[in-house]
Specification:
Length: about 270
């Protein structure tokens, strides 16, 4: 098996040898990576707990701006005495996870790296940097552009009523929009791995571009909290751009292209 892999790639076996691990070794490695990740998130949780009110103040800015713009009381409410405490626990945990995400992603990479060839392990730094950067960009886009417009529309639409928005309901809507946009912006990372394994190709994505656009608008219509076309376009536009970027990524990392570049270099 090793000889056939070497012949197929044409690389030095000492450079490209894939290490092997037994099933129990994989379980032990998974346990260690989980323990390290949980410990790091716990440290991040306690670090963020002291800033819980400041963090939530930033989260409240979109709704406060929308309420102020429509002349309404800038105050959220709660219906259960333990709700604020539980809310701060959730906020500190999520902030701690985001704070320690580079370390957690590194643990994920260290778990999957034994199954990669040595020349494929060079993707670790681009993987970590791009994953965090894209998620942050998506979350910021949702926080700065998508969420304020959605709140302004919703608050204005119900301006004849007195709003009584609970902190729990607001936080759930906030996280669904911001985290949802962050995950949507991870599309190039997903395509990178699918193309790296040869599951999808740039040709396939280009051929089915119109179907992808249709699917993107369906997803945008589902996740958009408002029924107006403007907010749906705001959701769909970055996804279309990311899909185009993903086509280029798929072309660059697909096995056929890697093989072609290797043959050209050898020639």
């Amino acid at each position: 098996m090793f000889e056939s892999q070497t012949a197929a790639t044409g690389d030095d076996p000492k450079r490209d040898a894939m290490p092997t691990m037994g099933f129990l070794d994989h379980l032990e490695e998974l346990r260690n990576r989980l323990v390290y990740s949980i410990a790091a998130v716990a440290v991040g949780f306690f670090a963020c707990w002291g800033f819980r009110e400041n963090i939530y103040a930033v989260m409240q800015k979109p709704i406060m701006g929308a309420l102020k713009a429509h002349g309404m009381s800038e105050k959220l409410v709660y219906l259960n005495p333990v709700e604020p405490f539980n809310l701060y626990l959730k906020i500190a945990a999520l902030a701690g996870l985001f704070l320690t995400s580079p370390f957690v992603l590194y643990q994920v990479w260290m778990f999957i790296s034994p199954g990669l060839y040595r020349n494929e392990k060079r993707y670790v730094v681009p993987f970590m940097v791009s994953t965090i950067a894209l998620f942050t960009a998506g979350g910021y886009f949702g926080y700065k552009f998508v969420y304020p417009r959605a709140l302004d529309f919703l608050i204005g639409f119900g301006s004849q009523f007195q709003p009584m928005i609970t902190i729990g309901e607001y936080t759930s809507l906030f996280l669904s929009i911001v985290l949802g946009m962050g995950l949507i912006f991870e599309m190039p990372i997903l395509i990178f791995f699918l193309a790296l394994m040869g599951i999808v190709s740039a040709g396939f994505m280009t051929k089915n571009f119109r179907y992808a656009i249709l699917l993107i608008f369906i997803v945008a219509a589902i996740v958009t909290p408002t029924p107006d076309i403007v907010n749906m376009l705001i959701f769909a536009s970055p996804m279309i751009v990311l899909y185009g970027l993903s086509i280029g990524i798929a072309w660059a990392v697909h096995p056929k292209q890697r093989k072609a570049r290797k043959e050209k270099k050898a020639a």
